[in-house]
């Protein structure tokens, strides 16, 4: 009798554990995304400061310089196989920054190299970047046209 | 102080992405599309500019910042050159980043081969 009650208590306990497990998992994923994303943005901030102070670039060129350098870092680290390791720890923290955009260009292109340099590398470069550019650019044209009408 | 805000805002934007990834069935590709589009429209509504002024790279490095560059470019183009500017402005503002992504992406994809993935441990 005692035994059965204990197992029931254990079951209840296990149920409670299961209820709470996913939440704490999400919390730790979010914490890691926060740390990784924050650090990547701090690297970006350092690149911006370098462009503005050391290279004396104007505001528009600083923005372009920063994205070029960050894309370079993201693409190279992906090629070296480092970025995927960062990614498995940091989740969205490495997907959302522009380095993740570079990662999404290099990894499918590398993966499909055996299908040739045109339809393999050339086409797969855009398997994720393509939709991003399609929706981003279309949205910007829409916004520009609305700006034309209201100005 | 610049770095503190860059860390906080940049981290927070990534947390939004992580919540979408963990709680919904959105794939990373859809999240990237969503973030760029959201960046464009938030910029149009004037909601993203203050974030960029506060956090610098913390707001421009996440993909929403790519949307911000597209949006500001298109609006500036529209103000200066009307309809032609509305079409050209977005890509003009982001041309450097897009060209870099294509060139560095191509070079890295040609030089390197994918690392063979180790079988996942049961813990992962």
In short:
The complex is a heterodimer of chains A (151) and B (124). Chain A has seven helices and no strands.
List the helices and strands and how they pair.
The complex is a heterodimer of chains A (151) and B (124).
Chain A: H1 2-54, H2 59-79, H3 82-90, H4 92-95, H5 98-111, H6 117-124, H7 126-150
Helix pairs in contact in A: 1-2, 2-5, 5-6, 5-7
Chain B: H1 2-23, H2 28-44, H3 49-55, H4 57-60, H5 63-111
Helix pairs in contact in B: 2-5
Distance between the termini of chain A: 81 Å
Broad structural category of chain B: mainly alpha
Structural class computed from helices and strand pairing of chain A: mainly alpha
Total helical elements of chain A:
7
Order of helices and strands of chain B: HHHHH
Rg of chain A (CA only): 23 Å
Strand element count of chain B: 0
- Uncertain regions spanning at least 5 consecutive residues of chain A: none
The tally of beta strands of chain A, per DSSP, is 0
Q: Alpha-carbon distance between the termini of chain B?
A: 37 Å
Q: How many domains make up the coordinates of chain B?
A: 1
Low-confidence stretches of chain B: none
Mean pLDDT value of chain B = 92
The coarse silhouette of chain A is elongated
Instruction: Note the main sheet of chain A.
Output: none
Q: Based on the structure, what is the oligomeric state of the protein chains? A: heterodimer
Q: What's the number of helices of chain B?
A: 5
Amount of helix of chain B = over 70%
In total, how many domains does the architecture of chain A comprise? 1
3D structure, described in words:
The complex is a heterodimer of chains A (151) and B (124). By secondary structure, chain A is mainly alpha-helical. Chain A is 89% helix and 0% strand. In chain A, α2 packs parallel to α5 and α5 (98-111) packs antiparallel against α6. Chain B is mainly α. Chain B has one domain.
């Amino acid at each position: 009798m005692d035994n059965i009650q204990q197992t029931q208590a254990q079951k209840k306990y296990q149920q409670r554990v299961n209820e709470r497990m996913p939440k704490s998992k999400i919390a730790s994923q979010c914490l890691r995304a926060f740390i990784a994303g924050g650090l990547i943005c701090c690297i970006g901030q350092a690149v911006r400061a370098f462009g503005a102070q050391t290279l004396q670039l104007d505001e528009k060129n600083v923005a372009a310089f920063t994205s070029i350098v960050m894309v370079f870092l993201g693409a190279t680290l992906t090629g070296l196989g480092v970025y995927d390791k960062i990614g498995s720890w940091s989740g969205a923290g490495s997907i959302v920054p522009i380095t993740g955009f570079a990662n999404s260009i290099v990894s499918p292109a590398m993966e499909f190299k055996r299908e040739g340099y045109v339809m393999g590398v050339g086409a797969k470069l855009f398997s994720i970047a393509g939709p991003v550019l399609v929706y981003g650019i279309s949205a910007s044209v829409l916004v520009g046209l609305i700006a034309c009408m209201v100005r | 102080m610049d770095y503190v805000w860059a860390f906080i805002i940049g981290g927070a934007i990534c947390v939004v992405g992580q919540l979408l990834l963990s709680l919904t069935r959105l794939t990373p590709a859809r999240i990237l599309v969503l973030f760029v589009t959201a960046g464009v429209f938030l910029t149009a509504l004037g909601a993203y500019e203050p974030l960029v002024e506060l956090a610098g790279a913390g707001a421009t490095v996440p993909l929403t910042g790519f949307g911000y560059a597209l949006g500001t470019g298109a609006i500036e183009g529209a103000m200066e050159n009307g309809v032609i500017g509305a079409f050209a402005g977005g890509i003009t503002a982001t041309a450097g980043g897009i060209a870099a992504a294509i060139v560095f992406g191509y070079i890295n994809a040609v030089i390197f081969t994918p690392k063979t993935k180790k079988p996942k441990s049961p813990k992962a």
